[in-house]
């Protein structure tokens, strides 16, 4: 094993969260400036030690529980290297991505670990394999996730994602400018997805219609993105947010942020990710960016990032 360093970006879902779980298309984009990093340093440890200071964790791999997602990512990587015994090394994990906020922090950390460990053993993974292994870890975090987070983060490109299908890379003529505003802590994704599932089961016709409309919005958003029609894209984000409210995953605080962004001149805004808290995205143009950023902070955003 040699020393190796690797990273992976955060992501946001532009349109289609939740409906993507039910087979509708969704679009996600990476946030390359916001990253998780893993550094493998071979050395005098009594095994493989994982140090994740942001999570206040430091432990030997052999002591980690079977269900620990960080340990699973390392074990899958070692298996891909053909190693039975972990090497003596320290694996340092750092992440600037807020946790449980719909920004894909779990998938980014898994992918950074998989990349660093397989680079260290001289067997870097091709993207399809990396994505498949990251999905195994995602299941540990989220139950039965659609796989959109690990896919967009593996490719680090805008993707058109339909569950069970090969993702398509999108190449918009201009990247949409987003502000990402933190609306506070969110429940685990699996809790939000399960809540939607229960409501779906008690009113299947209504929810099928809502998901179908979200799917139609994804098609329209793809066309808007690919033709650079940002005004249309903004309108579609607004419409998607109304549907997310209808399936019960928004909160008064997220709604306030969305309203504030629109009132300050954003082209459109919506919650992103599983909801119940977490982040709102606002589509802005260069001229309006600062005004919208200030409005989001004034409306109670804990922080505003740029994507
Ligand atoms: C979470 O980032 C997005 C959801 O659609 C869940 C999933 O796709 O697995 C809410």
Question: Can you offer a commentary on this structure?
Answer:
42% of the residues lie in helices and 23% in strands. The relative contact order is 0.17. Strands 1, 2, 3, 4, 5, 6 and 7 form a 7-stranded mixed beta sheet that branches. The protein has helices at residues 69-80, 105-120, 127-142, 148-155, 189-202, 204-226, 230-246, 252-263, 289-298; strands at 4-15, 26-42, 48-52, 57-60, 89-95, 159-161, 168-169, 177-182, 268-272, 279-284, 304-306. It folds into 2 domains: 4-169, Ribosomal Protein S5, domain 2; 177-306, GHMP kinase, C-terminal domain (Alpha-Beta Plaits, 2-Layer Sandwich), CATH 3.30.70. Helix 6 (204-226) packs antiparallel against helix 7 (230-246) and helix 8 (252-263) runs antiparallel to helix 9 (289-298). The protein is of the alpha+beta class and 307 residues long. It has 9 helices and 11 strands. The site of (R)-mevalonate has 15 residues, from helix 4 and helix 5.
How do you describe this structure in short?
With 307 residues, this protein is an alpha+beta fold. Helices cover 42% and strands 23% of the residues.
Supply the key terms.
307 residues, 7-stranded mixed beta sheet, 4-stranded antiparallel beta sheet, 9 helices, binds (R)-mevalonate
